[in-house]
Amino acid sequence: MVARVIPVECFDLVVFGATGDLARRKILPGLFRRWKEGQIPEGSAIVGAARSSFTRDDFRTLVQEALTEFLPETELDPAVVASFLDLLDYVTIDARGTAGWEDLAAKMRPDVVRAFYFSVAPALFGDLAQRLHERGIAHRQSRIVVEKPFGNDLTSARALNQILAEFFKEDQIYRIDHYLGKETVQNLMAVRFANILFEPLWNSQFVDHVQITVAETVGVGGRGEYYDKSGAMRDMVQNHMMQLLCLIAMEPPHCFEPDAMRDEKLKVIRALDPVTPAEIVRGQYKGKGGDDYLTECGDPASRTESFIALKLHVSNWRWKGTPFYLRTGKRLKSRASEIAVSFKEPPHSIFGESNQWRENVLVIRLQPDEGMDLRVMIKEPGPGGMRLKDVALDMSFAEALGSDLDIPDAYERLIMDVIRGNQTLFMRGDEVEAAWAWVDPVIAAWEKHGDQPEPYEPGSTGPEGALMLMHKDGRRWREIR
């Protein structure tokens, strides 16, 4: 199957921080792939902007090297690469000064979509927004894209929202969370709201519990100093995992439009009960050499968590009494992200005690093998009577839609949505603030009591306390494969 490609309008896209790691790894390779697929029209322009004193040719060389490093050789047709490099320009700019802004203004065209990607530290968001406004480079139809972390707590998130609101309307601000651009995450909405099969069962009457897992095999590595100021709660739970929880728990919006979707997600966050200490487990990997968190972060007294597991409750009519279990961590057994919706057992079994029932589970795999499977009970083949067995009704995207299907990276899809002016998969300001309002008291309690994270072995499934969090409820985590 070949995915249908719908071109966007002609645009000018300025990438601030264009020489940085995110731009090289994700943004620029993603734009190249959209160009290769014909989604970016002729006449569009991509302008890199950073402090580095590059010429246009220097920047094009950097981008070509990034494409070679981060994309397969089979995708890099020389003619296509050359035509993409022709779209590129560069401006040396001082985010907090005056240098470069006149040059940038001269490159903007009045008759195309104008977007600005802030791939920089959040401390520069306000400076960039102010100068784009004061220099007349951004107009009412312009859009800005801001990367996480969007604040470090509720106070800083509000301050950032207020700074951006001085110069841009809410419908111009695109707070990007790449998890929402994943194909499977969007298919979760399709499965729920485009099929009568699941939605009638999507409530506390039929769902026993929900597990959301985001496991990583890597440690903090070179990000140790940065990560130690955030930890798993700020780095993953407050944004990525909160968004996944919202998509699972939200009510059906009245239509598939940005504010309708975000209104329902906001209701979920506001319905979250406060968590108690017994419902939280924090961990920190303890190994040897480079596998030790304290060594990598450079602080032998650090109490920052590299793993967290939580039990959450959504207090509304749909989910009252159904627990949501979240866990995420670094240096775990394998790299895996999934959502598992476990349904309750039938009220009565007609097959006798010899046939042990195993729960029906809908598993949405976000990575590495994007797809879904539903575990159901069937009769085991053979003449030996009625023996039940659980099997998976498996749908791998690669198998179901064709091995040649090219699934775009999340950044590719989201950047094209920015050009279209579609905010459905982006967070709204009040959504961000509500998430921080729930997270802040949890972090404050840790800091007040000086809690030390529980150690766990690198390559394991996390600390023992996480297993006990489920065990005391008569449940267990799904295996991290």
UniProtKB/TrEMBL annotation:
It catalyses: D-glucose 6-phosphate + NADP(+) = 6-phospho-D-glucono-1,5-lactone + NADPH + H(+). The keyword Transmembrane does not apply. Pathway: Carbohydrate degradation; pentose phosphate pathway; D-ribulose 5-phosphate from D-glucose 6-phosphate (oxidative stage): step 1/3. Pfam families: G6PD_C, G6PD_N. Belongs to the glucose-6-phosphate dehydrogenase family. Catalyzes the oxidation of glucose 6-phosphate to 6-phosphogluconolactone. This is Glucose-6-phosphate 1-dehydrogenase. The gene is zwf.
